[in-house]
C-alpha cells in the first residue's frame, strides 16, 4: 500500500511542520497551495490533509466533491483555532478526522497512522468480501457490443456516489448490474439490500421501505427498521420503481434530497446514508407523461441510466452464457460434466429469448437435469417448445417487435404483423420447395394464384 499524502494548504509553516513530522516515518508528501491545484492532483491519493479555508475556495466544498468523485480517499480537515462549528460540519459531511491549528506533531502522527491502518483494513475487507461475492454471485458474462458498453458504464458510475437508474426488459440482469455497482463502490463494505416494489402490496410498501414503530398499525407487534435503515452505509436497489404509489414517491424524493425520513407511527426523524439504485422494465418517460411517476423523482433517478440490451440482441453472448450456466448447474447439483451439441448451440442462437437471461438460465438448468448422457441436444432444450401451439410460438417471436410498435400512436399494427408473418412463412416454404410455387401453395393450403399475387405484392418474385 502506498503511503502518499496530499496536503492542500496555503500556509507554508503548516506544510513545513507536516513534512518534518511525517517524512522521516516514510510518508511521501505532495503539497498544493490552492484548491484548484489540489483537486487536479488528487487521483491516486488515499489520504488528504485539507485546509478549511483556501485562497480560491472553501475546503468544506472541496470535501463534498472528494466524497463524490474520490470516495476511496480519507480526508482530514485542518481548521483554525476556535472554528469548531466548521469542524463539526466537516465531520457530518464525511471527513475522517480534523486537526486544529496549531496542531501537535505527535497528534498529527497518531491521526495519520490510524488513517492508514484503517485504509489497510478496508482493503483487506474488500478483498475478502469480493472473494465471498464471487462465490455466491453469478459473474456478468459477454463480449457483445451492447454488454461491453454496460461494463464500461458500471466502471464509470460505481465509484461515484450518485443515484443510478438501471433499465431493461425482465430477466436481462438488472439486479446483477446493481450488485456489480455496489461491489465496485466505496460502499462495498456495507450491505446490499433489494426491494421489489411489484412484489409487495402497495399499501404495505411504505412500511416495508421506511419501517414502523411498534403499534403503528394493526399487526405491528414489533418495531421494524425498514429496508432503508437495513441498507444504511450500503446500497438499496428499488426494483420496478414504476410501481411505487405516487404519494410514496413524494416521501422517497424527500429522502433522496435530505437523507432523512420518519418511520410509520413515529414523529422522530431518522438519518440514513444509503445509495439508491432504481430498476425498471418500463419507459419511465411514458410513466411521467401518464401521471404515474413524478417528474422531479424521474430526474432525480435519471442522473445516470444504464440500459441493458435484451438477450436477442446479444447473439454472440448466448452460448458462452449457456456454457457458464451449464457448468454452474453441474457443480452445484453434483452432476457429471455436460456439453452442448453444435445443434443445441444453433438452437440457442436461433431462439428469441423473450424471458432473456433468466429464461436461458432456467432452460439450461432443466436440460442439465433431464438430459441423458453427457451431451445436451436441441430436443433437451426445447422439449416443450416443440409441442407448443403456433400461437405460443408467434408470441415468443413477436414479443420484442410488438413492444416497439406499441410505442407508436398509429402503427397499423395488424397489417404490419400479418404482412411480415406471411413474408417469413412464404420464404421458408419456398426455400423448402426450391422455389416451386405449386408445391409451396399445396403445403400452405392456399390457391396457387393467391400465392402468386401475394409474392408479387411483397416483391418476392
Summarize this, please?
The protein has 21 helices and 16 strands. The chain has 461 residues and is α/β, with parallel strands linked by helices.
Q: Identify the overall geometry.
A: elongated
Query: Taking Cα atoms only, what radius of gyration do you get, to the nearest Å?
Result: 30 Å
Question: How many DSSP E strands?
Answer: 16
Return the structural class.
alpha/beta
At the first level of CATH, what is the class of the largest domain?
Alpha Beta
What does this structure look like?
This protein is an alpha/beta fold. It folds into four domains: 4-127, Rossmann fold; 154-307, P-loop containing nucleotide triphosphate hydrolases (Rossmann fold); 311-388, Helicase, Ruva Protein, domain 3, CATH 1.10.8.60; 392-457, Arc Repressor Mutant, subunit A. It is built from 21 helices and 16 strands. The strands form five sheets. Strands 2-1-3-6-7 form a five-stranded parallel beta sheet, with helices on both faces. It has a five-stranded parallel beta sheet with strand order 9-10-13-8-14. Strands 4-5 form a two-stranded antiparallel ribbon. The protein is elongated. It starts with a strand and ends with a helix.
Amino acid at each position: 500500500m502506498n503511503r502518499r499524502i496530499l496536503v492542500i494548504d496555503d500556509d507554508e509553516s503548516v506544510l513545513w511542520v507536516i513534512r518534518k513530522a511525517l517524512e522521516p516515518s516514510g510518508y511521501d508528501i505532495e503539497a498544493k497551495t490552492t484548491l484548484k491545484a489540489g483537486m487536479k492532483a488528487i487521483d491516486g491519493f488515499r489520504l488528504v490533509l485539507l485546509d478549511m479555508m483556501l485562497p480560491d475556495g472553501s475546503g468544506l466544498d472541496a470535501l463534498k466533491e472528494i466524497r463524490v468523485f474520490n470516495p476511496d480517499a480519507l480526508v482530514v480537515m485542518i481548521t483554525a483555532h476556535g472554528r469548531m462549528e466548521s469542524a463539526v460540519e466537516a465531520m457530518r459531511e464525511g471527513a475522517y478526522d480534523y486537526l486544529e491549528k496549531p496542531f501537535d506533531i505527535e497528534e498529527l502522527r497518531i491521526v495519520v497512522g490510524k488513517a492508514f491502518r484503517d485504509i489497510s483494513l478496508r482493503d483487506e475487507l474488500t478483498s475478502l468480501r469480493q472473494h465471498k461475492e464471487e462465490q455466491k454471485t453469478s459473474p456478468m458474462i459477454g463480449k457483445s457490443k451492447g454488454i461491453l458498453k454496460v461494463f464500461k458504464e458500471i466502471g464509470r458510475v460505481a465509484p461515484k456516489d450518485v443515484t443510478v437508474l438501471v433499465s431493461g426488459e425482465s430477466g436481462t440482469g438488472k439486479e446483477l448490474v446493481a450488485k456489480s455497482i455496489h461491489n465496485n463502490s466505496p460502499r462495498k463494505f456495507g450491505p446490499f439490500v433489494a426491494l421489489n416494489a411489484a412484489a409487495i402490496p402497495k399499501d404495505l410498501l411504505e412500511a416495508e421501505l421506511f419501517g414502523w414503530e411498534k403499534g403503528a398499525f394493526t399487526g405491528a407487534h414489533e418495531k421494524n427498521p425498514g429496508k432503508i435503515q437495513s441498507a444504511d452505509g450500503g446500497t438499496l436497489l428499488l426494483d420496478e420503481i414504476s410501481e411505487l404509489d405516487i404519494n410514496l414517491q413524494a416521501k422517497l424524493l424527500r429522502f433522496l434530497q435530505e437523507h432523512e425520513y420518519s418511520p410509520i407511527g413515529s414523529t422522530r426523524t431518522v438519518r440514513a446514508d444509503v445509495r439508491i439504485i432504481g430498476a425498471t422494465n418500463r419507459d419511465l418517460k411514458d410513466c411521467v407523461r401518464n401521471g404515474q411517476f413524478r417528474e422531479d423523482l424521474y430526474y432525480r433517478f435519471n442522473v445516470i441510466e444504464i440500459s441493458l440490451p435484451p438477450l436477442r440482441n446479444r447473439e454472440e453472448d448466448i452460448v458462452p452464457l449457456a456454457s457458464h450456466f451449464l457448468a454452474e448447474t453441474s457443480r452445484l447439483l453434483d452432476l457429471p460434466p455436460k456439453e452442448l451439441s453444435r445443434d443445441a448451440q444453433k438452437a440457442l442462437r436461433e431462439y428469441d429469448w423473450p424471458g432473456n437471461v433468466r429464461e436461458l438460465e432456467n432452460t439450461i438448468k432443466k436440460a442439465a437435469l433431464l438430459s441423458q448422457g453427457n451431451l445436451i441436444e436441441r430436443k433437451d432444450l426445447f422439449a416443450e417448445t416443440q409441442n407448443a401451439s403456433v400461437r405460443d410460438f408467434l408470441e415468443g417471436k413477436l414479443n420484442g417487435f410488438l413492444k416497439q410498435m406499441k410505442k407508436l400512436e398509429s402503427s397499423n399494427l395488424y397489417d404490419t404483423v400479418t404482412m411480415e408473418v406471411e413474408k417469413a412463412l412464404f420464404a421458408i416454404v419456398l426455400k423448402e420447395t426450391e422455389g416451386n410455387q405449386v408445391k409451396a401453395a399445396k403445403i400452405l393450403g392456399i390457391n396457387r394464384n393467391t400465392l402468386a399475387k401475394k409474392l408479387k405484392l411483397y416483391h418476392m418474385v
